[in-house]
């Protein structure tokens, strides 16, 4: 009997011992009665920390756009999309056998687009025209390419109803032109133009995103013949693949190039631009406290040029280049991806005004204990649709009146000893 | 023995590792734990063995496994190691609600070895003050009259002030036992503050850590007088300097609390003892170790209990224990002194032909502070195992 009791008590004891190894310590219902001094004080300060800023146009560089901007707003903005097919196959496959292309039944440009949202959807039909823009001149310059968009070089066009703008457009182009390039083994370079009775924007897929405009060739009516699909490729400049690769497709701006005045910081626009802001934050805040909030406060200046109420996401980005690089244009190309360090975007429209707050605490925390040569106190601003849509967001810069200059609001926990009861 | 010691100091190792991650640590004002017992530098576990706990603490001056009276180790006949697990299940109730917590403690590890000529040496570590607690609370901080942020603060303290004792006991006469001890007061408190915000878009959560290290010393001495029916024990500890440091910076200094106590037991029943004990701890000497808001008070600790030989299981005696204890805890809640009353019970027996001693005790404690509408109830299970190779 006693043995059973002892065994039972031992078992109970073991169970309790094992259970006790798992602590449950969280308490707090009795605060503040038993823990009245637990309050943690945050401090908040707004400082004119931005010591220099500038806007650089032409970023992202030509060929690096996510989508190609195809826009037509008359004298305000006019852009063209350029697609290069520098290698076109001369054979097609039929019943498993290769055959030389001697005739072309049809040729299309399979054109991926970013589906316009309901607010940006065109209200009237639009026409996309394709031009043969092959030339021996420097064909990345708008002034050279613009005259080539003329009737005698038109190789195809198609009109689309607004509701047909879903994800891919098929634009027929001249079979004779394509056959000529196939037979001669020469390149085909196509320029796209958008035409509408109203201002219109369309984002066309680019090879940089893996969504390049495909040249689709059907060399035979025979359904057993496989079509030939040609992806955008550029061979110029020659022997410089890091330059020629991005030029497989790109955007040129014919009308509407603007510059940002010194009192403003521009983001997006035509041509696309990014802005750079450099800070000087007191060391006693960055290095000796724990920062829990850092907001870059920018006052927006309404831009009433285009797409006034079309929202654009503006990203604050970390500048990853060291201060050894002094060219701001270069600095703005060495930026972190959106979302790095927890940096989030802000949605604004070009015509908006007022103070916009960018939360950059994740970035500011990386400055702690780091020399400015290691962790530059700077931030870049870019549009999520830079180079893709013409909307431009403007903020007042450090050269604007004091009341609207960039400011940094920092909320921090000051350094006070703790832990002593 | 070394394994047991290492388990006891697990938190110490963890805090040492955490030191690596620390550099200039910003801080905040944060004090106090959300209970009555773990105020100030923590809860005094008592430095009792499980057997002594079973008697409410009454045998503390006589029990060789309790690192109180160094004279008591003189009766240890052979090499021995002992280890103790002591989970506490605590409920704190105030007008604003209740908290139930579980704290795992390993308050006593101990080894002893006879060295000849009536001398026994021992080395052990016990918890002097356990500060392990976590407080979680929600507040709203107003940054400007129009800007506020709700936040959750988690204030965790992990660690203890430990007492490492090297003791020698001597049995010069059948009726006299004498002992001396040298104490190193060590240990760490790892303080962690984590603050998170409801608005995680604008605000980023953070965690700050700080290690407070204790270093100090004390000496102790005691003796026991033994007659046929009565055994009495007396001991005292004299505290030396006690320093509190953070990394390599000395923050505060104080004195290790002096302690003196006495137990007297009636041993006229075979294998049994009925005892009463009282002791005085000069905890107020720790007052200067904290901030001016820390109020430590000198405290009496009085108990009565019995360790009775119960029924036999085979050739083993099952010891039945019971006791009552009343004491004042060392640190006030604000300006309110915290007292504790405990009822205890326990069992003990030997296994493996007397090579293993197993003890179990359960302690039910009620803690309160006069003038404060808060109460604390705790069930503590103490498991002790001693091995004589």
Produce a short descriptive summary.
The complex is a heterodimer of chains A (421) and B (389). With 421 residues, chain A is mainly β.
Report on the structure:
The complex is a heterodimer of chains A (421) and B (389). The relative contact order of chain A is 0.20. The mean pLDDT of chain A is 90. In chain A, a hairpin with a 2-residue loop joins strand 6 and strand 7. Chain A has 2 domains: 171 residues, Sandwich (Jelly Rolls), CATH 2.60.120; 178 residues. In chain A, strands 2, 17, 19, 22, 24 and 25 form a 6-stranded antiparallel beta sheet that branches. Chain A has a 5-stranded antiparallel beta sheet with strand order 3-18-23-20-21. The longest helix of chain A is centred in the first third of the chain and has 19 residues. Chain A is mainly β. Chain A has 7 helices and 25 strands. Chain B has 389 residues and is mainly β. Chain B has a single domain, classed as Beta Barrel (Porin), CATH 2.40.160. Helices cover 6% and strands 60% of the residues of chain B. Chain B is built from 3 helices and 18 strands. Chain B has a 14-stranded antiparallel beta barrel with strand order 1-4-5-7-8-9-10-12-13-14-15-16-17-18. The radius of gyration of chain B is 22 Å and the shape is elongated. Classes of the chains: A mainly beta (421), B mainly beta (389).
Walk me through the topology.
The complex is a heterodimer of chains A (421) and B (389).
Chain A: H1 2-20, E1 26-27, E2 43-47, E3 50-57, E4 67-72, E5 78-85, E6 91-94, E7 97-100, E8 106-112, E9 126-132, H2 142-145, E10 154-160, E11 168-172, H3 175-184, E12 188-196, E13 200-205, E14 214-218, E15 228-230, H4 241-244, E16 249-255, E17 264-268, E18 273-279, H5 283-286, E19 290-301, E20 312-318, H6 328-331, E21 346-348, E22 354-359, H7 361-365, E23 378-383, E24 392-396, E25 407-413
Antiparallel strand pairs in A: 2-25, 3-18, 4-13, 5-12, 5-16, 6-7, 8-11, 8-14, 9-10, 9-12, 14-15, 17-24, 18-23, 19-22, 19-24, 19-25, 20-21, 20-23
Chain B: H1 2-8, H2 10-20, H3 50-54, E1 80-85, E2 88-94, E3 97-103, E4 108-116, E5 119-130, E6 133-144, E7 147-173, E8 176-197, E9 206-226, E10 230-246, E11 249-255, E12 259-266, E13 273-281, E14 299-313, E15 316-328, E16 338-351, E17 356-369, E18 374-387
Antiparallel strand pairs in B: 1-4, 1-18, 2-3, 2-18, 4-5, 5-7, 6-7, 7-8, 8-9, 9-10, 10-11, 10-12, 12-13, 13-14, 14-15, 15-16, 16-17, 17-18
